[in-house]
Amino acid sequence: MKSIAELKKIVIDRIESRKEEIIALGNTLLHMPELGYCEVKTAAKVKEELEKLGLVCRTGLAVTGIRADIACGNGEGPHIALMGELDALPVPSHPFADKTTGAAHACGHHAQLTQMLAAADALVPVVKELSGSLSFIAVPAEEFQALDYCRKLMAEEKIRYCGGKPEFIRLGVLDDIDMVLLIHAGHDTFTPESYNGFCMKEIIFEGKAAHGGLRPWAGKNAAAMARQALNMIDAQRDTFDDKDSVRIHGIISDGGNAVNVVPAKAVLELQIRAKTPEAVANACKVVDRCVKAAAMAFCGNVTIHNLSGYMPYKSSENLNKLHGDNLMELSGKVLGNFGHRGSSTDMGDVSMLLPALHAYSGGFAGSPHGADFIVEDPVLAYVEGAKLLAMDVVVLLGEGAEKGREIAAETPVMNKETYLEYKEKMSSKEEFKYDQA
Ligand SMILES: [Zn+2]
Ligand SMILES: [Zn+2]
């Protein structure tokens, strides 16, 4: 049986020898950006690359997702998944945007797929030396955009949640997985401690139309209800504990149809973010109270459509350390820690159930989700991350998989049952009628 050190050398040498090929693959994926749940060409390319390694792919998971498995040859051990996200973002001004859809890899998810596929190519030849199992998983729709399209898929019962990873969990695609590793595109090699989770609300106020100049008192102003709801939500910000990192932000997506008509309908779309599932649920209750109070004050009605969003992300300290040790060994760099982040990812959902790594690679310049977010150093963006993923797997599953077993035994925040209960609770539709008051 080869040692971890010997196996690391084999996978690093293999990836180094394919550097140009890996960068070319990254470029190919960069130039086929597709929006969430529409990643057909990207998924086909991922499948083609995995099949070249002799792997059999399950396809069409949560519409476009893919999973390929391989059993290791050296006995029992944990089941590790390397993961990459398939989707791009609508950023039409990005230099590599699709001319028709405006989709662009302005979050660099093509680099995740490239790293995962390059790591797979290096690991498949050495699996006989490892213990446990490996899966390579491409997941759709991380960006939580194109909500109208998501709602259409929901109505057709093709999905139940907007994010690809929550869908994977719901469908049981991750049931046999013990931990998940992913490296996201970024400016440098960092890892977060945690991310906020969020719930999304579409809030529809219903009033009564009337002439705005002649008889405004005959109407009920739904736009005024929305404004008062926002005022009350703003006034509540001090009541949230700093440690919960609550953020509430949104837009007025409908404020009426004509200036001389008292608006009969107004719509708010809000995201409510916080650091723990309990804090998200609590902040949602506060928002609901403000919304109901505003409708009540004007004798109007309000409907709250809740979308469960993403769970908070909780990092595995042990996985971060293992990844940081490999980074130090590979390049002499210290893995940075950017603490808690106010934004969200559906790796949060995975991290509630399993130990998860959501590290960042360097090699990108510009502002994430901006038109200037591009690959600056293809070796850092595509190649070095692949080496790190392969090294991480070798440490976890090499020499009898002792390290992998230790991390796989970490206590999860939730089990699948309590997770799905929470998601369902946060996916409700509620109507409150005060028009008879
Ligand atoms: Zn993004
Ligand atoms: Zn991203």
Describe the structure.
The chain is α/β, with parallel strands linked by helices and 437 residues long. The protein folds into two domains: 4-195 and 312-400, Aminopeptidase (3-Layer(aba) Sandwich), CATH 3.40.630.10; 197-310 and 421-433, Alpha-Beta Plaits. Helices cover 38% and strands 22% of the residues. It is built from 13 helices and 20 strands. The strands form six sheets. The protein has a six-stranded mixed beta sheet, with helices on both faces. A hairpin with a 3-residue loop joins strand 1 and strand 2 (65-71). The mean pLDDT is 96. Bound molecules: zinc ion (ZN) (2 copies). One zinc ion binds at residues 107, 109, 142, 184. One zinc ion binds at residues 107, 143, 369.
Topology:
Blueprint: H1 4-17, H2 19-30, H3 40-52, E1 57-61, E2 65-71, E3 79-85, E4 89-90, E5 103-104, H4 109-123, E6 133-139, H5 147-155, H6 164-171, E7 179-184, E8 190-191, E9 194-195, E10 197-206, H7 222-235, E11 247-254, E12 265-274, H8 277-297, E13 301-310, E14 313-314, H9 317-331, E15 336-337, E16 340-341, H10 347-353, E17 356-360, E18 364-365, E19 374-375, H11 378-397, H12 402-408, H13 416-425, E20 429-433
Parallel strand pairs: 3-6, 3-7, 7-17, 8-15, 9-16
Antiparallel strand pairs: 1-2, 2-6, 4-5, 9-14, 10-12, 10-13, 11-12, 13-20, 18-19
Helix pairs in contact: 1-4, 1-11, 2-4, 2-11, 4-11, 7-8, 9-11, 11-12
Bound molecules: zinc ion (2 copies).
One zinc ion (ZN) is lined by residues 107, 143, 369.
